[in-house]
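ASSEMBLY PREDICTION REQUEST
Request ID: AP-0331
Submitted by: J.K., bench scientist
Number of chains: two
Total residues: 555
Priority: normal
Notes: Please return the full assembly, not individual chains.
Input sequences:
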Amino acid sequence: MLSLFSRLPQYWMDGAIRYFEGLRNGLSEPFPFIADIPPTTPYEVIHEEGKVRLRYYRATASAQSTPLLVVYALIKRPYILDLLPGKSVVQNLLNQGFDVYLTDWIPPTRTDSWRGFDAYVNGDVANAVRAVQIHAGVEQISLLGYCFGGLLTTMYTALHPETVENLITLTLPLDMSVREVPLFGLLDKLRPETLEQITATYGNCPAWFMKAAFTAMSPVHHALDKYMGLHRNQNKEGYAEMFTRFERWMNSDVPLAGQIFREVTQDVFQQNLLRQNRLHVGGAVVDLRRITCPVLNVVGEYDDVVHPQSSLPFLECVGSADKANLLFPTGHVGAVVSTAAHKKLWPQVGQWLRERSAPLPVLRTRWSSDTHTH
Amino acid sequence: MAEQARHTAVDLMTMYKATFFELPMAGTKWAWGVGKEQETVEAAWKGYDAWVRLASTAIDELYRNSLFGEVVVRALDGGLRWQRLSNAWAGAFFGELWPVVGLPTAAAVQALQEGVQSLTARVTAQDVQIQALRKELRSLTADLPTQRKRRASSTRLNAQLKALPAKMNGHQTSTFPTPAA
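STATUS: Completed
Returned structure:
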């Protein structure tokens, strides 16, 4: 018990140091507060354009024919999907035979404040899909979107359905009429003028604002309870390492481009336009009924960031005949890092994908400058 | 709502019982050597867990309060206005000063920072790839049968010997010449 009281101030001081180091870099620029952890799985960067850097992870088991593009959220860094051996979604999918491509979003600077859904969906995601098509030599790919990335993949699939063979959404924040998350009561009060003030002052929505919003979701947990948890589980093998890496990810906030911040807050969150098929992206209406490919909607039963009731109606909105909700007893981040998710959830996701992927051709030729067929 | 009120009441009762009855009782027993330390620790954690749940519920209720929301948003508005004012003031007075004294502007530094970050990411990725390839190469080299190495060297020797029939029949007075490349 004594060690707890000696350690607690140390944890708080570490947190304070991170904040002040961020502030020293300037209020609008501290992204991320700390550098990425070394990746667990080796990868190759096969494409970089706009604000996306595309990573390629080669399958370790016999490869499935349809490659999988994982679109990570624009919030925080993507290494949560490849945190530790045995707790890595990327590794889990590679071991199941999928070639995995992952979007590593480049944090926007002030000059990127114009970037909205159009730039990210019709620009970066569309280019990433093209890069995967060329690299893998396929016409259609499978898409997996996590949280905000789920929004991007959903919009992309509705706007460009011809390129998507399967769509998987993980903790998708779709129906924003659900107001079960208490912090939403506070965010509801954000007026358009306040949003304008934020983007006029910083260009983008700064990283510290994003961090403050996440911390405010459960302040007791972030200020005290997580350290108590560490103390209580200090003898559990691997817990401390997991905690350190997870904390580092929790502090890996990045800014959100000004335009997309306004659009997601006003159009998606406050007016719920995506759910009503009334959201405009790049001059086109995002009509979710245009999604006709097989859809798997993975929902965290105890998700306190995206309430399950906000994700579950997705299947009612799409035009697919082959669609399923997969409700798993986990939280928002637990869906990608918990032991239970890696033992039970991801094998199910892999199984679902395998059943819907085209069989592997006998000979697969990667497209290159002198090869145009496959 | 009724369900939530019930949970709150249960948590309140648990915290009250743990703090004022169970913890002092277990602590006293432990001090007198009748009880175990474990019982005291468990009572303390029970009270703490109930307190955390109560505190979280109270904060959630605060977020749902309309007045609190108004206050926070107005404070944010005010703070942002001050930030803009200070930015504008600093820009007006110092914006043109940096290039004069030979210092880069904030935009130039930011562009450089972005470039460095992009390069760092690429180097990190390549480094990881190199490590993986090294590992693969090591495992491949380890798997190579030693027999094949021996066979290769004897083939080379045979070739050299074939090139020197005369000397082989002599008294081995000269050393092997270096084979032609």
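REVIEWER COMMENTS: Residues 106-143 of chain B form the longest helix (38 residues).
SIGN-OFF: pending second reviewer
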